Amino acid sequence: MSNIKRVDARNSFCPGPLMELIAAMKLAEVGDELEVLSTDKGSANDIPEWISKVGHEIVECREEDGVYYIHVRKTK
Amino acid sequence: MTTKFNIICISGLRENLQMAAMFAATAAVSGSAVSVFLSMNALRYFVKDSHLSAPSEGEIGQLMEIKNVPSFQDLFRQAAELGDAKLYPCSMAMEVLGIPDDQLYDHIEKPLGLTKYLSDFHDGHVMTF
């Protein structure tokens, strides 16, 4: 069973949420899942872009009450 | 092939430093090789425990101070720690300001002269802030 680590980057601004996610991903194991919370709309677009560029996997992206939940899996 | 970005920081204004740091951090964690050359009024913010606050040029800089925007110091550090970015202080600015090498933050490389910098980083995109 994989761990799901939550990265709460609400109220930070670009590229804060991305950098927080990357810092957490460095510490994660391959196969681990992480979910970053962001209130920054730019980051909600940029994080999936970074994930696909680097070759990790998006599990789910959703928005709820102005908070973006970006759920990813570390693949390498 | 790895994309290379050479970022030259000369301004001591908050907006310029922030934009340079955002570029450096984002490019470095996206697989690009980034060099940052710190000179002129940009250098003194990288002295350990200086606690200097960069003056704002205008509205955005003032708003960044009160909102939870990641600091340019943190972004430059993350660029070096999480990605392939190297920060080089300008040896001329170090001399003029009288800063010993060991007084800069640990993620800053040894000072470089312009000749060496130009020789090592003559290829790649150049951005000046």
**Annotation field: number of helices of chain B:** 5
CATH topology of chain A: Translation Initiation Factor IF3
The CATH homology group name of chain B: DsrEFH-like
**Please, what is the oligomeric state?**
heterodimer
Q: Encode the helix/strand succession of chain A as letters.
A: EHEHEE
Q: How much helix is in the residues of chain A?
A: 25-40%
Query: Per DSSP, what share of the residues of chain B sits in E-state strands of 2 or more residues?
Result: 15-25%
Mean pLDDT figure of chain B: 95
Structural domains of chain A: how many = 1
The total number of structural domains of chain B is: 1
Kindly state the percentage of residues in helix of chain B: 25-40%
User: What's the shape of chain A?
Assistant: globular
CATH level 1 class label of chain B:
Alpha Beta
Q: Can you tell me the CATH architecture of chain B? A: 3-Layer(aba) Sandwich
Task: Report the count of strand segments of chain A.
Answer: 4
Q: Spell out the helices and strands of chain B N to C.
A: EHEHHEHHE
- The CATH homologous superfamily of chain A is named TusA-like domain
Total E-strand runs of chain B: 4
Describe the structure.
The complex is a heterodimer of chains A (76) and B (129). By secondary structure, chain A is of the alpha+beta class. Chain A has a single domain (4-73), classed as Translation Initiation Factor IF3 (2-Layer Sandwich). Chain A contains two helices and four strands, in the order βαβαββ. In chain A, strand 1, helix 1 and strand 2 (33-38) form a beta-alpha-beta unit. Chain B has a single domain (4-128), classed as Hypothetical Protein Ychn, Chain: A (3-Layer(aba) Sandwich). In chain B, strand 1 (4-9), helix 1 and strand 2 form a beta-alpha-beta unit. In chain B, helix 1 packs parallel to helix 3 (72-82). Chain B is globular. Classes of the chains: A alpha+beta (76), B alpha/beta (129). Chain A binds chain B through residues 11-16, 18-19, 22-23, 26, 46, 50, 53-54, and chain B through 22, 25-26, 29-31, 67-70, 75, 78, 82.
